[in-house]
Amino acid sequence: MPESVPSVVDWEIEEVFDPLSEQFMACPYAAYAKARGTVPVAHHRGFDEYIVTGRAELHSALRDSTGLTSRHNLDGHVPIAPQAKEVLEGTLFYQPALYNLAGPAHTRFRAFINEYFTPRKLRVLEPRIREVARELAAELVAEGGDGAEGVDLLARFAYPLPYTVISEVIGVPVADRAAVKEWNNAWLLLQVAPLTPDQQLAFAGQLAAYEEYLRELLLTRADGAPEADEDLIGGLYRATLGEDPLCTLDQAVVALRFMIAAGHETTTNLIANAVHQLLTVPERWAAVVADPALAAAAVEETLRHDSSVQGALRVATEDVRIGDTLVPAGARVRVMFAAAGRDPEVVPDAEEFRLDRTGPPNHLGFGFGVHFCVGAPLARLETRVALETLAEALPQLRLADGFRPRHLPGGFIFHALESLPVTW
Ligand code: HEM
């Protein structure tokens, strides 16, 4: 047993940190609040994992990218039944993405990906983001929003906006986007959802097809078509060529799969969480409608208060000290970014969602250190544009009568609404 792990609270940790329970998914923040002050690095015996919720401990863990590696981030979060596991072992499911490594390979790959999200690229992209947002909002306006059950803003706006944008940046053909979304869901569900062995087996089969599709898509650029420079698929394909290639074709497939998911799921859910927080108190929404400049503050406050990404996995490559706790080599560590945003020691009224906070962002919503989110500028831009567009097109927006938030299974990773029914 490592030193300094207060075993006296172990039973509470397991009861309170149960990511398969509805209670935890509805409000993981109660668990963080309970742990943060007493066991900022808590050993969860059920999962045999260390859960980090203290802010200083999070910074220390995230600074140590070699002692605490990200390479198992995409291995999944739930036990996989043997038959499905056999299928997955024949795929790239357990292959780390280059993002998840540390050192020169990671630095070089990040530099390459960053080129697609520079301020200049985003300036060029912004009118297109606005155009897609306005088209989606116009469809809703045309339909009318007075039905008793409301319209699901998540499915009709928060999802298609970032999915269309990232598909265009990457170069996923329009005709394939529905299939890609299905495959993407299968991949994510295999990682975080409590599935039956049969469901796992079915999704594992789909994963092989997904990888084959992405490989073929990359190879369509082998003929050197002129558009090869313009999207991520073209760039990634070229990155596999030459004497000192940036990555192999398999690594390009894994990177693409990661970018498709990271490039929309996270932002879809951030937009939905933001709108939910704003509509929960009608005066908040009225304030954004009256002053759309508040949209930027709403984005930052959602990242702090109710981010779509809650945490990530690290694995100790050696004995590592996090705060007062010695984490043994080989241990799994959950870095709960979302716990830092609600630390009352650094954020006044941390449990409150407020639009009048000043100063630089005081959260770890996009992580920290060498793995800081590559897509943060795009996510911020898309979410801000989403709120501005909705405020302009649907100023009377409100939650559908009787709406009770229900969250998707997200493990220790996501905090995502199932749906967001609204009326106007
Ligand atoms: C609201 C939206 C988003 C949130 C809350 C979010 C959050 C995060 C967080 C917390 C990390 C750090 C993970 C870790 O340390 O293990 C991360 C990494 C990453 N994100 Fe995002 N993300 C968002 C949107 C995006 C978008 C739009 C893209 C791509 C266009 C993206 C691409 C990535 C990549 C590639 C990494 C890995 C970086 C690395 O390991 O070097 N994310 N994101």
Q: Helix coverage percent of residues?
A: 40-55%
Radius of gyration: 21 Å
Strand order of the biggest β-sheet = 1-2-8-5-3
Please report which band the strand proportion falls in: under 5%, 5-15%, 15-25%, 25-35%, 35-45% or over 45%. Answer: 5-15%
CATH class: Mainly Alpha
The count of domains is 1
How many runs of DSSP E, i.e. beta strands?
10
Structural class designation: alpha+beta
Estimate the mean pLDDT confidence.
93
Low-confidence stretches: 1-8
Oligomeric description of these chains: single chain
Biggest beta-sheet profile: 5 strands, mixed
The molecules bound to the chains, other than polymers, are: protoporphyrin IX containing FE
**CATH fold topology:** Cytochrome p450
Put simply, the count of helices is 18
Secondary-structure blueprint of this entry?
Blueprint (H helix, E strand, L loop, with lengths): L9 H7 L5 H5 L1 H11 L2 E4 L4 E4 L2 H9 L4 E2 L12 H8 L14 H11 L4 H25 L7 E2 H6 L1 H11 L6 H16 L4 H23 L12 H8 L9 H14 L2 H16 L1 H9 L3 H12 L6 E5 L3 E3 L2 E3 L4 E4 L1 H5 L34 H18 L4 E2 L21 E3 L1
Parallel strand pairs: 2-8
Antiparallel strand pairs: 1-2, 3-5, 4-10, 5-8, 6-7, 9-10
Bound molecules: protoporphyrin IX containing FE (HEM).
Family: Belongs to the cytochrome P450 family.
Organism: Kitasatospora phosalacinea
GO molecular function: heme binding; iron ion binding; monooxygenase activity; oxidoreductase activity, acting on paired donors, with incorporation or reduction of molecular oxygen
